[in-house]
Design goal:
CATH class of the largest domain in chain A: Alpha Beta
Strand content of chain A: 15-25%
CATH topology of chain B: Rossmann fold
CATH architecture of chain B: 3-Layer(aba) Sandwich
Shape of chain B: globular
Largest interface: A-B, 70 and 61 residues
Number of domains of chain A: 4
Structural class of chain B: alpha/beta
Distance between the termini of chain A: 28 Å
CATH superfamily of the largest domain in chain A: Pyruvate-ferredoxin oxidoreductase, PFOR, domain III
CATH topology of the largest domain in chain A: Pyruvate-ferredoxin Oxidoreductase, domain 3
CATH architecture of the largest domain in chain A: 3-Layer(aba) Sandwich
Radius of gyration of chain A: 27 Å
Number of helices of chain A: 21
Shape of chain A: globular
Number of domains of chain B: 1
Oligomer: heterodimer
CATH superfamily of chain B: Thiamin diphosphate (ThDP)-binding fold, Pyr/PP domains
Bound molecules: thiamine diphosphate, iron/sulfur cluster
Amino acid sequence: MSSESVTQELPARPAATEIVNDFSIQVATVNGSGSQTANLVLIRSLFQMGIPVSGKNLFPSNIAGLPTWYTIRANRHGYIGRKKEIDLLVAMNPETAREDALALDAGAAVVYDEPLKLNEVRSDLVFYPVPFDELVKPICPDAKLRRLVRNMIYDGVLSKLLGIEMAEMEKALTRQLGKKAKAVALNQAALAAGYAYAEQHLPKRDGLRVERMDKTRGKILIEANAAVAIGAMMAGVTVVTWYPITPSSTVCETLIDYMKKYRVDKASGKATFAIVQAEDELASIGMALGAGWAGARSMTATSGPGISLMSEFTGLAYYTEVPAVIVNVQRLGPSTGLPTRTAQGDILSTAVLSHGDTKHIMLIPSSAEECYELTMQAFDLAERFQTPVFVMTDLDLGMNTWMADSFRYPDKPFDRGKRLDAETLKTLGDWGRYLDVDGDGIAWRTVPGDGLPAYFNRGSGHNARGQYSERADDYTANVDRLAKKFETARQWVPAEVADDQPGADVAILAYGTTHWAAEEARDQLKSEAGLTTSYMRLRAYPFTEAVERFIDRYTRVYVVEQNRDAQMLSLLKLDLTPGQVGKLRSVVYYSGLPIDARTISDEILAQEREAK
Amino acid sequence: MTTPTPAAAPAAGKKVNRINLELATYRGGKTTLCAGCGHNAISERIVEAYFEMGVAPERVIKLSGIGCSSKSPAYFLGGSHGFNSVHGRMPAVATGAALANRHLMPIGVSGDGDTGAIGAGQFVHLMRRNIPLIYIVENNGCYGLTKGQLSPTADLGSKLKNGVVNDLPPMDLCALAIQLGATFVARSFSGDKKQLSALLKAAIAHKGTVLLDVISPCVTFNDHEGSTKSYAYVKDHDEALGEITFVPFFEDISVDYEEGSSTEVKMHDGSRVFLKKLDAKYNPQDKLAAITLLHETAARGEFATGLLYIEPDRPSFIDLLNVVDTPLSMLSEAQTRPGPEALEEIMERLR
Ligand SMILES: Cc1ncc(C[n+]2csc(CCOP(=O)(O)OP(=O)(O)O)c2C)c(N)n1
Ligand code: SF4
């Protein structure tokens, strides 16, 4: 990929072919240098021009000083997964500029800080040197602010080079900075300076161009952690407990903002919720369970290390049947791993979190819309099944900027599950906390303060009436009922989404953020290699029966995921016959960057060649 | 559900409390702890205290961690909901339940291992928050349930049955709690019926976190010579701060103390605690005095018992969170799901 033939004299592509609304821009800066505003203005102005976009922030686990890259992809077809190749680099970071330039494909464009002399590194790129320091001086007399304003200059340069309308940039800027008039004026001047410089000194020599489209009307731009927060609020969450950890912190931080605004009782001015920053994840899950047991809709959000700490309590909740929603925004482990990189690495450990025989419901959204919808549904399922329900997102989804449809207002009321009331008690006649009166494995529960019969919730052996028991038959009857309950859940979880293609022999199975790259890879396989594939996107564990039937229809099924050990494939194996298992192939990616389409299509083609 | 349910008509001649319930209503299952275990005596005092205070059992929730001590909530208040959780993590569960329903009256039972070792972190933060909760440590200086290992409250030099000597200094849970901000800190002895009863009743009237450290000998593993948590040792080294009397708000004050010989503390609900002093200078609302006393008595190898520290009016964590009066667990969909206009407003900002 990276050209090592630095010394070789290659002319920059003379008359570059035009590429409209289909490219990736990467901005390389230093963490903490305030490039965020410039990057958001850039992505927003493209979005406002109706062009499908996505923004991915590759940042270090550091507050300031280490390199960070922000990648914006504009794609007229609506592909919003990561694109492997960078078409335009904005090199602002002296530390990484050389390496960043070397990593580009020949012909890519580079806007760079002139003193970095990137044109000396290789000659097969299109170079646009910009003297940022010189340009910023006259517009920003305050030397302290220059570092921040400097970044807005590259937005101005790109506006000219790519044809991003200046009016949209200014609109995005005002939106980003709000009422801070001074800051707006300063940044506007920087935009203009960049534009003017490009106009006078940088004749266009690359083929990248944007053109107004109409593909973002009614859509939103959102980091999906905020979508989870909105879902939780609309689900009526009342007790939220958390402990800060990247990449999940912004779930609760955003939720706090929304709840303060929309969940304060008008008459009394009091909160219809309690949000507690706990001392650790042992406490945050404990509090969520205490609240869930007492009848509140409760949740916590965390990432891998927190999930590990929640393991013991999760088993207790499974065994004693206490509802709670646990959001797992996955990051790259094990241990601290790469805490600011993405992965789907907790699938297996979360599915069976805790000791003994346990299995948990997991909901797996792919998009911001689904983060909203499935988080809402998680609260219903947690109460319906009286058990912890995990919402499995990842850093890519949670912390990056996604284009999404506007969220629909829920059309179904809350499902509070089998909460006993006096009427039902009368009909049932006899009540025991763990009596399976309906044959679906789900018993009726009472909660403190409801005036109905009380019970003793205990993690030790208990019989159907919740009484202490060490009898073998009580134990097995109880855990068998829990297994039955899990079977019942198959009919309640969000079903897989399938796309069966006539004549296809090969299929792809993916889930979560892998979906975006998988969809694009299918198009690549079809248009470049003539390989038609069917597709199924998993949305929950347990799987519905549809998964088995889908696998039965194909010869080879590629399970694509972002972890080393093919975790979802392992989980599928538990449900499948040996014949079905024999059809499964694995495509994995685990570098910490979001998976890209090319990786998938290359790997599938390689395996297909072997299979034939 | 905040009003006590009227009791079924009591059998004629049986003593009932002010909400018409018999003492038997406050009992729980049959204990499975060792005969003579201090924990059993504490359960009995709890039964009496709730009975005498006329608390409706359905308002009480019982919480615990893991240990012999933590089993005991099954042996009192059978009509109340209970949650026997995981080792050392009862404070979190209690906090969550208290947040979910602010009208509940949580009582938690823990052991010295459950609190001082595995649960030290949660204990510390619970004390800081002032959640309405009566937190009882049934303190025997050893791990009962796992057969007698040393716990963090074992005294320096105290010896296990098998001869193992403790060479680490003990944690003083009361001193720690006072320092961390607990608003009611007391110590007692499982065998001191009168003092423990008065303290429990005062604890029920208190609105914040109560730490009640009750020395409770483990007759099986730690009631021998060489143990400072044995019956014999505590009887000889118990330095009561004074005689404590508790008068609930619904009773007439008939106790008659000599002026100057007693301190009166008014609880937020109007109840009163009287402390008949042995040491005329002791003031249970003086933090520094409490800490000093604990250090001095510990240095002499004695246990100061009684009401060590009280701050009756500090707002609880739930007050600070400014939570609605209706229990969060009982709020309806209409009260907790914002309308379509709210969602539209949020969407518009993101477009
Ligand atoms: C995570 C975990 N580790 C260890 C244990 C084993 N364990 C059960 S009870 C106990 C000690 C209990 O001692 P204490 O809290 O002093 O109560 P006591 O039995 O003395 O009343 C231990 C270590 C456990 N249940 N859970
Ligand atoms: S082992 Fe000790 S603490 Fe446990 S029940 Fe027996 S006497 Fe009590």
